[in-house]
Design goal:
The protein is mainly alpha-helical. Helix content is about 70%, strand content about 0%.
Length: about 500
C-alpha cells in the first residue's frame, strides 16, 4: 500500500483531470480498435470476402499483412524523436509478396522477346523490300494499335484486374508472333501483328521490355507487391532481371546470320525468331497464372502524409513530359538498329552483339538506383541521370566508328538505368492505388501517341541525312528533362527518404 501511495497522488485540479479523461481512455481504446481490425483481417483471410461485384474472393496471408497500406493494421505512423517540421512515416507491413518472382519471370520472358524483335524486325522488313519511308510508316501505324491497347488496358485493369489484362496481352502477343512467322509481310498484317506484340515498343536495348501494352497492368502489381519503402528496389530488380534476359535475346538476334552460313535463308531465320516470340508469349501467360492480385483500396502509404496528387493533375503533368520523351524515342528506338546498319554498314550479328553488351552494362545500375534515390531524392535522380544521358546521345552521330558509337550508347543506357526505377516508383507513390493502372496508361499515352508519329518523320529525315533522327531524338529528350524538372521538381512530394530543403508543399 505504501508503494502504491508513493506512485499516485490525487489530482490538484479535479476539473482538468476529468476533462482529460476521454483522451486518457482513447490511448487505451485505439490499440484495442487496431487489435479488432487485425482479428477482422485474419478472419477475412481465412474465410474470404466478397468484392464489389458480389463474387467471393479469397484474401491471402500476404495481402492481409499489407492491408495496412490502406489503413488499419499497417497504417503509416509518425515516428518519435523527429525534429520540428520533419514528417516521418513507417508501416508495419514489411513482408514481400510471392507475386514478385512471377512478375520477374514474366518480365524476363518479355525481355528476351523484345530484345531480338527490336533488332530483327526492321531488318526483316528491309530484307522483304521495305524502304526507309515505308518501314517508318509501318512502325508508326503499328504504334496506333499499341496506343489503343495501352488505353484499353489502363481503363479496364483498374476495374477487372491487372492480372487479367496481362493474361490477355500475353495471348495477343503470342498470336502476333505466330502471324509474323507464318504469313508474308504485307503492310496490314505487319502493322496489326507488330502492334499486338508491342514490337518496337519495349524501350529498346537496356530497358528489358519495360514499356509496351503490359506496362499499365504490370506497374501497379509491382507497387502493390512491395512495401512502400522498398518500391524503388523492387522496380530496380524487375528491370535488372529484364535487362539480363534481354542480353540473351540480343544474342539470339544473330541467329539468322548463323543459320545463313549453313544455307538457311536469312528471311527464314527471322521468321523462326518470330515463332520463338510467339512461344515466349505463351510462356508469359503461364507464369502470370499463379499471381494473386491484391484488392484495390485507397492509397494510405508513405505518400499520404505529403499528399497523393490529384488524378487529373498527375496525368496532365506526366502526359506533358512523356509526350516529349515519346517523340524523341520514336526517332531513336525503332530506327536505331537501322541507323547502325546505314551509318556503319553492320548487320544483325554485330548489332545484336552490341545490344548484348548494352544490356549487360545497363543491368548493374538498376541495383544501385535505390541507393541513389535515397541520397538525391527520386525526382532529382531522374533529372540528373536523364540530363547527362541526353548529352551523350547528342555525341553519338559525331563518333567515327561503330564501336565508339556503341560505347557511347552503352554509357547512355547505363545512365537511363539509374533513373528508371526511381521514376516508376515515384509515379506509383503519388497515385491513388485504385487508379494506378489509369495513371500508368493515360500518363504514358501521349508518349505512345507521339512515338508513333516520329518513326515516319525519322525515316523521311534519314533519306536527307542519316544522322538527323538522332539529333532530333536528343532535342526532344532534353526538352523532356526540362519539363519533368518543372512539373515535379518542387510541387510533387519527394518520398524516397531524401530531404530537399525549400521544397514546396504538394499542390
Amino acid at each position: 500500500m505504501a508503494g502504491r501511495a508513493r506512485g499516485w497522488s490525487p489530482p490538484q485540479d479535479p476539473a482538468a483531470w476529468a476533462a482529460s479523461l476521454p483522451v486518457r481512455l482513447a490511448t487505451v481504446t485505439v490499440p484495442l480498435h487496431r487489435l479488432a481490425d487485425a482479428r477482422r483481417i485474419r478472419r477475412e483471410a481465412a474465410v474470404g470476402r466478397r468484392d464489389g461485384s458480389g463474387r467471393r474472393r479469397s484474401v491471402g496471408r500476404w495481402e492481409a499483412a499489407h492491408r495496412g497500406e490502406a489503413g488499419a493494421v499497417g497504417a503509416p505512423r509518425r515516428r518519435r524523436g523527429r525534429g520540428a517540421g520533419e514528417v516521418g512515416t513507417t508501416t508495419t507491413a514489411t513482408a514481400t509478396s510471392p507475386n514478385l518472382p512471377w512478375l520477374y519471370a514474366g518480365r524476363a520472358l518479355r525481355g528476351v522477346s523484345t530484345a531480338f524483335l527490336t533488332v530483327v524486325f526492321p531488318l526483316y522488313l528491309a530484307a522483304s523490300g521495305y524502304g526507309a519511308t515505308r518501314l517508318g510508316l509501318a512502325l508508326s501505324l503499328s504504334g496506333v494499335v499499341t496506343v489503343g491497347l495501352v488505353a484499353v488496358v489502363g481503363w479496364l485493369a483498374d476495374r477487372y484486374g491487372r492480372r487479367t489484362m496481362i493474361l490477355a496481352l500475353a495471348a495477343l502477343s503470342a498470336l502476333g508472333g505466330f502471324a509474323l512467322a507464318v504469313f508474308p509481310p504485307a503492310l496490314p498484317l505487319v502493322v496489326l501483328a507488330s502492334g499486338l506484340g508491342g514490337v518496337g515498343r519495349g524501350g529498346g536495348a537496356g530497358s528489358g521490355g519495360a514499356w509496351g501494352p503490359m506496362f499499365p497492368a504490370e506497374q501497379p502489381l509491382v507497387a502493390a507487391s512491395a512495401p512502400p519503402d522498398r518500391r524503388v528496389e523492387a522496380f530496380g530488380r524487375l528491370s535488372f532481371v529484364g535487362v539480363l534476359a534481354a542480353a540473351v535475346g540480343s544474342l539470339l538476334a544473330g541467329l539468322p546470320a548463323l543459320l545463313a552460313t549453313h544455307g538457311v535463308p536469312t528471311v527464314t531465320g527471322y521468321r523462326l525468331l518470330f515463332a520463338l516470340a510467339g512461344v515466349l508469349g505463351l510462356g508469359t501467360l503461364a507464369v502470370t497464372l499463379p499471381i494473386r492480385e491484391p484488392l484495390p483500396h485507397p492509397s494510405q502509404d508513405a505518400a499520404s502524409d505529403r499528399g497523393v496528387m490529384p488524378f487529373g493533375q498527375l496525368v496532365g503533368r506526366l502526359g506533358l513530359t512523356n509526350a516529349l520523351n515519346g517523340f524523341g524515342f520514336g526517332f531513336l528506338g525503332p530506327l536505331l538498329s537501322y541507323w547502325f546498319y546505314r551509318r556503319f554498314g553492320v548487320g544483325a550479328d554485330a548489332i545484336g552483339g552490341l545490344y548484348t553488351v548494352v544490356n549487360l552494362a545497363a543491368a548493374l545500375p538498376y541495383l544501385t538506383a535505390a541507393r541513389l534515390a535515397r541520397r538525391l531524392g527520386e525526382v532529382r535522380t531522374v533529372v540528373w541521370t536523364r540530363g547527362v544521358s541526353v548529352l551523350v546521345l547528342g555525341l553519338l552521330p559525331l563518333l567515327p566508328s561503330f564501336w565508339w558509337a556503341g560505347l557511347a550508347y552503352t554509357v547512355r543506357m547505363g545512365l537511363n538505368s539509374l533513373g528508371m526505377p526511381a521514376r516508376q516508383s515515384f509515379t506509383m507513390r503519388v497515385a491513388d492505388e485504385r487508379y494506378r493502372s489509369r495513371v500508368a496508361a493515360f500518363g504514358s499515352l501521349p508518349s505512345q501517341a507521339t512515338s508513333m508519329l516520329s518513326p515516319g518523320i525519322g525515316g523521311a529525315l534519314m533519306e536527307i541525312s542519316v544522322n538527323l533522327p538522332l539529333f532530333a531524338a536528343a532535342f526532344f529528350m532534353l526538352a523532356n528533362v526540362v519539363a519533368y524538372a518543372w512539373a515535379f521538381g518542387r510541387v510533387a512530394p519527394d518520398v524516397s527518404g531524401a530531404t530537399r530543403p525549400g521544397a514546396a508543399p504538394p499542390a
